[in-house]
């Protein structure tokens, strides 16, 4: 694969991240383009032959909305689904955000000329990783407390899309490894005139031309203001909202994890003899859930919410199971709505996830819950 062509693609994505930086949410950005975007576009202009390169900004934005496979003249990385465009509704598309946050930032592969503004986004993103690192180190000596604080922090970020300093003080004044400032650094101030909206299913919303849009339309895309899961947050002094990268990387993937954890905790409360314990993020997030049953068996679960099963298949590896994390059965669990979006989702995963042992089960969250209920029934009959 031609690496210099991948670099052009990365420049283009990073340039667009800067161009559509969330703090400019309500204004269409104007000339001049960020430097990176200009460089990527210059190369595109030279390589495009079948379709002429647009002569206006409007034309360029329209082109960038089109599926890449219909016009893009250079190599597209396999992690980017070319059935989608780079922008959508005049903002960075879900596919491009995913590529930026899951590929470029995760592997610290920012093009070296990334601007201060983009470096800033990367830094925000590393704030959480630094905290995670600190807690993982503390876990070596003080496992129980480090684990409790990790769960407190992670759950707070998933459930508090907006917060205030007062709330942070209440929650984090007694923690040993996490300070109020650490958590506050993962939020940004809401301005007094900002319209603050929130969806219970996907977090803070952006208002554009009177319409609300979520961070990831494939997860949740109906945000009419009269729906019960869409709420207006009234502004008060000190109100702040999750930073975009934390929302994308930490909060959003956590929503189905908490949903399944809460459902299993209900089962545990009803049948503590058979489902003895449900632990969230054991070993500071080595996997998502650990279930202990009355017969001594242990199940390990990781929940993954990807639109495209081919993208997910690249991520699936054997679940770590050393020491306290030992398990007898392992499961990758997919939110059920993904299977509605694509009926052959699980079959594709099974076929494409070549690094996954055959013994690891692949289930929807609903099917997994049923499997747990079956196991409880089996144990109760044996008695
Ligand atoms: Zn939503």
Please, could you describe this protein's structure?
The chain is globular, with a radius of gyration of 22 Å. It is of the alpha+beta class. It is built from 14 helices and 14 strands. The relative contact order is 0.08. The chain has helices at 3-19, 35-47, 57-65, 94-105, 116-141, 143-159, 165-172, 180-184, 244-270, 282-285, 309-315, 336-341, 345-352, 365-382; strands at 87-88, 91-92, 162-163, 187-189, 197-199, 203-208, 211-213, 230-232, 240-242, 275-280, 289-293, 298-303, 329-334, 361-364. The protein has a five-stranded mixed β-sheet, sandwiched between helices. The protein has three domains: 3-114, no CATH class; 120-248, no CATH class; 251-382, Trna Endonuclease, Chain: A, domain 1. A hairpin with a 2-residue loop joins strand 1 (87-88) and strand 2. The structure holds zinc ion. The site of zinc ion has 6 residues, from loops.
